[in-house]
Amino acid sequence: MAWFNPTPREISALEQIETALEDSQLEHPRREQLLKRLWANLEEAHGSRILSVVSPEGNIIQSPFEMS
User: Fold this and answer.
1) What is the pTM of this model?
2) Of 36, 39, 46, 45, nearest to 2 (Cα)?
């Protein structure tokens, strides 16, 4: 796992991903679709593929593309 200093755009994408993961109102198919779109935005902002990230709370968030 590589560490990086995220840009504001990457931080925003990460926050959106965390919000989608925690949103109890989202049904599974919608959450999965949303997470894939948000993760693609994160990878675009980062400029390369990202397999997982560690949230500020210490949670490991895996790429939704790896879960498929």
Assistant:
1) 0.85
2) 46
CA dist 36 and 68 (Å) reads 10
Return phi, psi of residue 4, to 5°. -145, 160
Sign of the dihedral through C-alpha 23, 3, 51, 58: negative
Per-residue pLDDT averaged across 10-14, rounded? Answer: 91
Interval 25-35: pLDDT, tens? 999 999 999 99
Annotate 14-37 with DSSP letters as a single string. HHHHHHHHH-TTS-HHHHHHHHHH
For 30, how many CA atoms within 13 A lie in the half-sphere containing its CB?
6
Q: Which of the 8 DSSP states describes residue 58?
A: S
